[in-house]
Amino acid sequence: MSAPAIVSTAPVARAGAAAKKTGVKHRRAILTFVLPFGTLFALFYLVPIGYAIQRSLLVIERDGTFGQAREVFGGLSQYVLVFQNGPFWRSIARVLTFGAVQVPVMLGLALLFALLLDSPLLRGKKFFRLAFFVPYAVPGVIAAIMWGFLYSPKLSPFSAVTENVDFMSADLVLWSIANVVTWVYVGYNMLIIYSSLLAIPTELYEAARLDGAGQVRIAWSIKIPLIMPAIVLTAIFSIIGTLQLLAEPQVFRSFSSAVTSTFTPNLTVYSTSSIPNFNLAAAFSVVLALATFVLSFTFLKFTARKEAK
Amino acid sequence: MSTALESPAPARSRKARRSAGNTAPTAPTGPRENPFARSGAMLVMGVFTLYFLVPIWWLLVAASKSSSQFTSTNPLWFADMSIVQNIGDLVAYRDGVYFRWLLNSVFYAGAGALLATVIAGMCGYALAKYRFPGREVIFNVVLGGVLVPATALALPLFLIFSQVNLTNTYWAVFLPSLVSPFGVYLARIYAAASVPDELIEAARLDGAGEVRTFFTVAVRLMFPALVTVFLFQFVAIWNNFFLPLIMLRDEALFPVTLGLYSWNSQVNQIPELRGYVLIGALLSIIPLIITFLLLQRFWRNGLGTGSVK
């Protein structure tokens, strides 16, 4: 193979620098493995982010009302517009409210189901595991369309309920969307938690069982602390998902006028870009991505510190 | 217990032990479970089985009816079976544009996920098995990428692609979906745990090149993780909505989610679209459900790996 030849020509590979030597030894292989991902990651993650930041710093300037439009550097003026934009911040507040209720409910259910699947209380575990996971195979758009019918006063199989409760009203539509999201993702989160329960050695709670501890006690004192990392992981992905809500509310716009074009932050980005006002939309995107990153990162650090105690 | 057959080895022995304990009350396995707890657990799971499956059952029933019977018969039970007729109408409608969308989705998700898996697998393997300068930096940047959701990138990607006049093409949706930071993360953890250094060393002594060793030896050992990466990337692309929504104008390029969304938002103007939306929604989720059922042995193992860490 040609790898040793590279070693002799590479300047870093001096005798004695053992760690560096192995590093350079397979340089060609390493490049072959890392470069495809590295290139694509740079092109479709890093460059777009950089470009969005750049665009968000530009403003459009015209010579007179009908003059030629030019993009010139405007400093943080787009961000000033973002921070003054009431609907955008209301949409952020809306998804945060949504997340504060929906994420705990969804993860609580997922944890309950996972613990039941892992307990000796159930029969037909395989069936339940699959039945609960099936909705994950339904894309958010399709799930929203289905539930749109199920909520409708006339077409719903539950019209006794839907005729009396307007699930598409301004008060309820956010929670109707929460139900769709919960329906899709409970089974997925349940499986993540369940597979980390399976990884716990039984010996850890056999002693507790012999001492007469019930399933609830075992779950609370032994299992849940051990699977905390899996729960944290599901929580982070759920927080990210919440801030990024788009498909379900976008579909619900055709069922309900209560879902405005600025209902969620991503809808605001989309409707601003269709005006088209790309510079402002880019600024919205940057703020949203940053907020998402900060929130999930803080959550990660916060839970990590709590666990360390 | 039938689940035992499907589980990974450690879980199998553990479950076998546990179920043996349950069938032999004299064995020293602590108190038997309270019958009230058993029926309570079954009741909870039974109720939620209805919650998860009734909407899908409703869709199956609704898609099998003619449009007059859709409104006039019991929404949760079959009337005259016209599912074949409905599929026939869908094929005929506007030269079968629906099936074009379905094919587009299969291409975006199938080819995209396959390539993304290979690329992420190579990178994760290199990060796990080679020492080279910058390794930790790359891994941390990739980990940051996991926290940046795909939807946050949709607008930046749109801005970049419009810069090179590639919006409204297959590439605009296909290329960004080749990047899976989560795949790299999972592949790295799994490779570190499941590919022994001795084996790579042995392959080296046999004269196999590094790249060949990866594709012949490592891929086999990493297979469960790679199937998981493939499946979740497949679902992510199949469900992706924002990127095609913002990138594509030409209906012929739509994935099935965007196509059904566009039909659904025109239902109020063109009522006959409702039937097409229903049968189209049903047909679009069947491939995913089947794929998940067939491959569950693999993804359940791999799912555990990502969360246990």
UniProtKB/TrEMBL annotation, chain A:
Pfam families per record: BPD_transp_1 (PF00528)
Recorded GO CC terms: plasma membrane
Statement: the UniProt record of this protein carries the keyword Transmembrane: yes
ABC transmembrane type-1 domain residues: 92-299
Domain of life: Bacteria
Protein keywords: Cell membrane, Membrane, Transmembrane, Transmembrane helix, Transport
PROSITE patterns xrefs: ABC_TM1 (PS50928)
Family: Belongs to the binding-protein-dependent transport system permease family.
Protein name per UniProt: Sugar ABC transporter permease
